[in-house]
Amino acid sequence: MTVTEPAAPAHTPSQTVGPFFGYALPYAAGSEVVPGWREGAITIRGRVLDGAGQPVPDALVEIWQADEAGGIPRRPGGLARAGHGFSGFGRCGTDPAGGFWFTTVKPGATGGGAPYIAVLVFARGLLKPVATRLYFPEDEAAHEGDPLLAEVPAERRPTLIAEPDGERAYRFDVHLQGDRETVFLGF
Q: Fewer CB atoms inside 10 Å of the end CB: C or N, the chain?
């Protein structure tokens, strides 16, 4: 009778918390910060991609922003939207192709910097959301004086600037890793 040594235990990958119960995270009209018919409405579309450039179909993207005049909304009611107000908050789950979209308004500048939208991405493999900013291409002159952009190396700044994608529409892809990794902010 031959006795064989048992196989060495294999290392298992570390895990994040979860799975999550997605009830109420994505919600009806969550991506409509303002209705598309509102004067001044813009559309932002993008994809969340992993380090290999593959879509992340189960991510959640949130945006937080000022209104057209640079005012920060300070009233409750981000979930209960009447169709005319502006909460400054939106949330969209990604589709099977990693896509997300928002209808909102272009924010005004706040605090002397360039207009931007704060973006949070919740995704598998992340214990906490990653934070970044979306800046607008037509505000190039204001980018020069933006305190946050001044801290980002010039070759990395394009990962924070949306691309025009038609009339009153922008494209902003979030690359979680890899050669085109989006600049993420630490707090």
A: N
One-letter amino acid of 46: G
How many domains does the structure of the chain reveal? 1
CA distance 108 to 117: 10
* CATH assignment of the domain containing 88: 2.60.130.10
The secondary structure of 101-163 as a DSSP string is EEEEEPPPP-TTS--EEEEEEE-TT-SS-EEEEEE-GGGHHHHTT-HHHHHS-TTTGGGGB-E
Range of the domain at 169: 41-175
Tokens linked to 91? 């949330």
d(CA 142, CA 147): 10
Note the pLDDT tens digit of each residue in 68-106: 999 988 776 555 556 557 889 999 999 999 999 999 999
The pLDDT, as a whole number, for residue 79 is 55
Flag whether 186 is in a domain: no
Question: Phi and psi at residue 151, in whole multiples of 5°?
Answer: -85, -10
pTM: 0.85
Confidence at residue 27, expressed as pLDDT on a 0 to 100 scale = 75
CA proximity to 152, closest of 181, 129, 127: 181
Residue 61 lies in a domain: yes
User: How many whole angstroms separate alpha carbon 162 and alpha carbon 138?
Assistant: 10
Query: Do the domain assignments include residue 184?
Result: no
**146: in domain:** yes
